[in-house]
């Protein structure tokens, strides 16, 4: 189980970029409300004649039809004679890892020798990927110039990539149109890193016209939310339906929710909404697992004459979403196996497994659930550790969970998993009290029982499971310690 405060350090270029095109800048549905569409781009003028348009023009290029968001797209292999060898980029016993600079120069040399837009697109994607993990030294008074040079070099990579993307996008390269729009939408290659939907939206439209499913979906989100265009629900539905025709799981999910709730100007038709959700679940990906989770919730409570209650099927759907890495589903399964809900047996190993999947993605309730498990441990599954309990509680508290803030304050007051620190404990109590935690307010007023033996006072510090106890759930040996 990973330590909550471990972070990867250093930088290692991704040498699989020649075989994998990733679009990691797409906002998830839950983050969309935070976008800022007032940005302006300040990229340099298109005055570099390094890359020349091929003699065939836009009509000569036939773009791939597959989405680069949900699967790998393999560009056609270039003619072997004029193009430098790419074998070092492919996995295998004889693979050689070149330096980042050498690999970049190899891509550039290949781009000079061919007018293949796929190869040029590959170079642009590699440069964007490299810019994300480009090593920037920690600023100190003595390395100001070094930091500035590193930032400048990173910005130059982005500018070169954006310039190249613009050129091949203008030639009708569908994936370049979408990728460039995605960059603009996420503040890559824009003025001060601000999201620029004024530039992104027209490119989404162009790629959608070429049949790019992700572009159709993103155009729909723009029309729904008014990013770079007027807010038009009817147009959003039109783009969502176009993406859904290509089985885009995000578009299928959005249409399902709209039909369930009567949104986007659609009538409330739960039966049709469930049909959309089922199609989305069939095509679920790590990026769009939401329909699996929603269907699980529907089968947990049921809808009259539409969805019947089926706990076993609901748990199966949650497991599918959890294996795709969806934190809310993993957390829900952790609860099911901890308390024996939805027909699941009480199983410490499975509970901890699913909590850990969610906690590794900073799901605050899952982090706090691991606090409870570490506080008492589970024989043969998880060793008891006050230190880990404190660290997971602090991670949940840092994420804004009030009851975790109270727990951190208590651990600091009593000295559980950390050295006692009454001043810091009071600070955490105040933060919890400000969010409405009554126990923290009592501690601050001095009305709570004095802190005594750690075992005696850890009985109710976590404040978890009250609802489950009322509904008949329980944890046997764990109840007497942390509930």
Query: Given the structure, what is the number of helices?
Result: 21
Rg: 26 Å
Largest sheet: none
Give the N-terminus to C-terminus distance in angstroms: 24 Å
Q: Provide the domain count.
A: 3
* Poorly predicted parts: 5-97, 452-456, 466-483
The count of β-strands is: 0
Mean of pLDDT: 79
Global geometry: globular
Protein name: HCP-like protein
Organism: Vararia minispora EC-137
Describe this structure in words.
The protein has 483 residues and is an all-alpha fold. It is built from 21 helices and no strands. It is globular. It has three domains: 9-53 and 63-219, no CATH class; 247-361, Tetratricopeptide repeat domain (Serine Threonine Protein Phosphatase 5, Tetratricopeptide repeat), CATH 1.25.40.10; 371-482, Tetratricopeptide repeat domain (Serine Threonine Protein Phosphatase 5, Tetratricopeptide repeat, Alpha Horseshoe). The chain has helices spanning 100-113, 117-132, 144-170, 174-185, 197-209, 213-225, 233-245, 249-261, 270-282, 290-301, 311-323, 327-339, 348-359, 364-376, 386-398, 402-414, 422-434, 438-445, 454-457, 466-470, 479-482. α1 packs antiparallel against α2. This is HCP-like protein.
List keywords for this structure.
21 helices, mainly alpha, Serine Threonine Protein Phosphatase 5, Tetratricopeptide repeat, 3 domains, 483 residues, HCP-like protein
Task: Describe the SSE topology.
Elements: H1 100-113, H2 117-132, H3 144-170, H4 174-185, H5 197-209, H6 213-225, H7 233-245, H8 249-261, H9 270-282, H10 290-301, H11 311-323, H12 327-339, H13 348-359, H14 364-376, H15 386-398, H16 402-414, H17 422-434, H18 438-445, H19 454-457, H20 466-470, H21 479-482
């Amino acid at each position: 189980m990973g330590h909550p405060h471990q972070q990867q350090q250093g930088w290692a270029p991704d040498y699989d970029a020649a075989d994998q095109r990733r679009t990691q800048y797409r906002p998830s549905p839950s983050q969309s409300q935070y976008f800022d569409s007032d940005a302006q781009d300040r990229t340099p003028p298109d005055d570099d004649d390094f890359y020349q348009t091929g003699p065939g023009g836009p009509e000569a290029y036939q773009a791939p039809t597959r989405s680069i968001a949900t699967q790998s797209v393999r560009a056609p292999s270039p003619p072997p004679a004029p193009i430098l060898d790419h074998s070092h980029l492919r996995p295998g016993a004889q693979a050689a890892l070149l330096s980042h600079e050498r690999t970049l120069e190899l891509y550039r040399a290949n781009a000079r020798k061919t007018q293949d837009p796929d190869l040029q697109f590959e170079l642009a994607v590699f440069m964007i990927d490299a810019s994300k993990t480009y090593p920037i030294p920690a600023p100190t008074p003595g390395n100001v110039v070094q930091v500035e040079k590193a930032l400048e070099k990173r910005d130059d990579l982005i500018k070169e990539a954006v310039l190249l993307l613009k050129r091949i996008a203008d030639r009708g390269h569908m994936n370049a149109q979408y990728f460039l729009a995605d960059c603009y939408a996420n503040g890559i290659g824009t003025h001060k890193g601000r999201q620029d939907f004024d530039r992104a939206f027209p490119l989404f439209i162009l790629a959608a016209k070429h049949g790019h499913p992700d572009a159709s979906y993103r155009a729909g989100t723009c029309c729904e939310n008014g990013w770079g265009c007027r807010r038009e629900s009817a147009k959003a539905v039109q783009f969502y339906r176009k993406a859904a025709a290509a089985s885009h799981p995000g578009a299928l999910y959005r249409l399902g929710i709209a039909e369930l709730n009567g949104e986007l100007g659609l009538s409330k038709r739960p039966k049709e909404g469930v049909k959309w959700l089922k199609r989305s679940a069939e095509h679920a990906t790590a990026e769009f697992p939401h329909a699996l989770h929603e269907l699980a919730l529907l089968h947990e409570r049921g809808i009259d004459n539409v969805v019947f209650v089926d706990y076993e099927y609901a748990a199966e759907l949650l497991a599918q979403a959890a294996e795709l890495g969806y934190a809310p589903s993993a957390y829900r399964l952790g609860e099911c196996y901890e308390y024996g809900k939805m027909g699941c047996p009480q199983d410490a190993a499975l509970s901890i497994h699913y909590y850990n999947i969610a906690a590794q993605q900073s799901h605050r309730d899952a982090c706090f659930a691991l606090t409870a498990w570490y506080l008492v441990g589970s024989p043969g599954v998880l060793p008891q550790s006050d230190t880990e309990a404190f660290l997971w509680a602090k991670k949940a508290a840092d994420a804004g969970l009030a009851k975790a803030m109270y727990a951190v304050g208590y651990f600091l007051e009593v000295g559980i998993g950390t050295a006692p620190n009454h001043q810091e404990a009071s600070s955490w109590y105040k933060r919890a009290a400000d969010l409405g935690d009554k126990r923290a307010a009592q501690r601050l007023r001095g009305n709570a029982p004095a802190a005594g033996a750690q075992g005696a006072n850890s009985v109710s510090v976590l404040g978890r499971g009250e609802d489950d106890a009322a509904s008949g759930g329980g944890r046997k040996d764990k109840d007497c310690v942390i509930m």
